[in-house]
Amino acid sequence: MTDFHSTYSNSNPVSSIPKQGITLGAHPGELMAALPAMMGFTPSQCLVIIGIVPDTQEPHRLRIGPVIRLDLENWALREAIGAFTEALAEWPAPQALVYGIHPRQEGVEDFINDAALLLEEDDVAVISTWWIEAISEGARWIDLETLEVGAVSSIDDNPLSNFTALHGALSLSDREELEQWMDVRPDAPVLRPRRFENSLYDREECAKLLADLLTVTEATAKIHRGDVRLESALADRSILRAICCIARDERLSTYLIALGLGDRAPIVREFLVEAARHSRSFMRRRLLLILSAVLSNNDEGMPAFYALREVARQSGDQWCDSPVDRVNRLIVDHMWRRHMSGTAKNSNIALAVNGVYWAANWETACLLDHEGPFASNMESVDPDQESDSEFRCRHRALLELLPVAIDWRPITD
């Protein structure tokens, strides 16, 4: 199995790399100790390859690029490394670090050598190769080029771990725990959002959808202020149901990506994954796609990959001919290409901006557009009727919430 993570190639290098950097050559054990922070879990019995690329703002400096994890299986090497080197192609003179993690050196050394040869064939210079006994403090490592021996540094106290902790990034024990984190909960009641109606053509659905946006936006803001505990909100099925209804709407689904920007990401991430655990079929697929975007924007590239892969690997007969799933197919193809090319974050920020645009201009774009899709069922409606007044009142409340509910820095920086 190949896990492809391009968090740092998808991020703003200024905001994503800590000011106190890790010196690649002088302290190999520090970068090894940072692997769990980079990947969201502690890798074991596998290969990990880290791309090293020039910093876009200071080209004389190097930074971490794509990261890939491979199971110890010969058949997977060439295809995985091909995808990895393709992601590095946009940078001049890309380099790589190759780590083999296994309790026994002989259990992984051949895989390390094969991977290094394939990288060199694709014009990626291998800085060095290492065998690591385990990713735990004090575990032994050997530089296979120089035969230097050392120990893995503290996992809890290094710049990348401190940085990801500050951003509320996931920190799981292993890959299995990461997969279980987003698994369906078969013993829990399934979330059943109301009957789908296209809000672009249905006045009543517009009003309900606006109420959903207020519910989720207010809940996120209250948790962020500390007025409500996240655990309590996650147990509120009305909030999770509102998230599902927003997520399936073609125009407003990306509003959830905007709501999950910056320091709100851990809140919205937990909302989305909890809703996905209680959802099935096309609804679960849509939630996982939005979750992947939120994770990627928070520099959690490996969990983002897993959420995206969960959707991409589903067989054709699992997909529905529903309006939501037809859009899901388009989204997953687009997001997969962006992730593999290392451009997911820029794309996801654009989606977030689109979601805010629709939410902010909703009244103008939909309810007041008498020449648009609503024309047929709006001509006989008095614009001053009670329902319109209620909608405008709710929409004003949403507009008042937007400046404080969304972390605008990732958009404006």
TrEMBL record:
Superkingdom of origin organism: Bacteria
InterPro entries: DUF4192
Name recorded for this polypeptide: DUF4192 family protein
Native source organism of the sequence: Corynebacterium urogenitale
